[in-house]
Amino acid sequence: MFDAVQQSALRDAVPIDIAPNDPLVAYLESAAGAVELAALDLESPALEELRSSGITLVVPLVSNGELIGLLHVGRRRSDQDYSADDRRLLETLAAQAAPAVRVGQLVREQQIEIQARGRLEQELAVAQLIQQNFLPKELPQLAGWQVAAYYGPARTVGGDFYDFIELPDGRYGLVVGDVTDKGIPAAMVMAATRSVLRASAQRLQEPGVVLARVNDSLCPDIPENMFVTCFYGVLDPATGHLRYANAGHNLPLVRSGSESSELRATGMPLGLMPGMNYEERETTIAPDATVLLYSDGLVEAHDPEREMFGTARAVEVLAADREAEPLIGDLLGALEHFGAGHQEQEDDITLVVIQRREAASSALADFKLDSAPGNEREAMRRVGAALDSSGLTPARLERLQTAVAEATMNAMEHGNGYAADRPVRVIVSATELEVVVQIVDHGGDHEIRAAATPDIEAKLAGLQSPRGWGLFLIEKMVDRVDQRTAGSLHTVELAMRLKGGDDATDDA
């Protein structure tokens, strides 16, 4: 409880205005958490005013990189310093309060205009402003990838949204969603969904668990007869690996070569029932593949005869294999031609295109070895020489060489059958993200089996062959193992990241 002096101070407190060019603004926008004012050394009028008001600790409220307010406290009545737990609590409160404060500011900024317009137009304007404010201001710049996005509101504003969430280890969260209903309620639910999803994605790795957490957060307070469909995936740009879950949203389309497919995963829309589980699936986005995330404003658009645009027409546009930005233009052009200019846009249209384009690489070595016992040591030596100045630590290079030797021996024995006329080809290359070694044999007509975890007890008891450790050990030694076939050729691709690996552990 506040004493009489504190209550009087609260009544008499006046807002502290901070000029946009005050040095304190730039400092707080980049601050990682709670800031102790006494420790700052800035020529700042706002800092002096905050100190003179008895404020000792502030936590910035930041939305989309912009400082929108401060959560602040004075000295404790006990005169003790704030503990680490106190600071974490304040930081958590600030993270949750910032989106709500921003929404409140946006609504307040529209109040004057709202008074001069009709009620429906007022709601649509505010809803659209909120919606657009929470869309990403910039698209991620990923080496070896092209990313493009488009949001086109209909006259009646819905709750479409998309997002890119930067995650640890260079990964990115990919989000596209749609809130049912229209106007301010849908925009508010969209803002809440985005905020909870972003907070959950930073703490939880599994996409299905993230969606379950968002669902449980929405259920108690979401307006009646409203729900949210949402696709959430975690992309590793270095490998193309994508793990994803889907809460009742339109299935993303993938175009790779001449084949088209959908990213299927099951799950109830968010906000309908608590305690839901969301299926997780994973895939690898192949080089030169295109992924299209979209809302139903694309596929459920109607022509004058009430026929829907549908996914088949979207797949036809993807088949043109255009770059990301022109591809969005092609989709919108096909949609306009389909409607023949006679139909108003029925719903918001959201499009996100993600294309994997091979990062610039250089072949460091390309050689062939006869399929003969012992030549795996030569492969090991040549790979080590090619990657001597690659930037890999000695420990990680040694691990990669060991994996190369094992994979080469497997290729000679199992892929080529030690046939004299079937050499093994080894290709060493590097990108700005990783080093890659490809071992190519002639076993493309053989079945590729996943690496099974060896049963040590069974092997010691003679119940399993002492062989069978190869691929299992290879997968434990490198950051990524991919296998593929092309006709009679079988390729094992081994990769080691140049950044973000466990170098510190290896060198300990």
Please explain how this structure is put together.
The chain has 508 residues and is an alpha+beta fold. It folds into three domains: 4-106, GAF domain (Beta-Lactamase, 2-Layer Sandwich); 124-356, 4-Layer Sandwich (Phosphatase 2c, domain 1), CATH 3.60.40; 362-507, Histidine kinase-like ATPase, C-terminal domain (Heat Shock Protein 90, 2-Layer Sandwich). The protein has 16 helices and 18 strands. It has a five-stranded antiparallel β-sheet with strand order 4-13-12-9-10. Strands 5-6-7-8-11 form a five-stranded antiparallel β-sheet, covered by helices on one side. A hairpin with a 2-residue loop joins strand 2 and strand 3 (66-74). Helix 4 (84-109) runs antiparallel to helix 7, helix 10 (310-318) packs across helix 11 (324-339) and helix 13 (394-415) runs antiparallel to helix 15. The protein is globular and about 85 Å long. The two termini are 52 Å apart. The model is unreliable at 464-468 (pLDDT under 50).
Distance between the termini: 52 Å
What is the CATH top level name of the largest domain? Alpha Beta
Adjacency order of strands in the biggest sheet? 4-13-12-9-10
Question: How much helix, percentage-wise, in residues?
Answer: 25-40%
Task: Classify the secondary structure makeup into a structural class.
Answer: alpha+beta
Shape: globular
Taking pLDDT < 50 over at least 5 consecutive residues as the criterion, the unreliable ranges are 464-468
Q: How much of the residues is beta strand, in percent?
A: 15-25%
Major sheet attributes:
5 strands, antiparallel
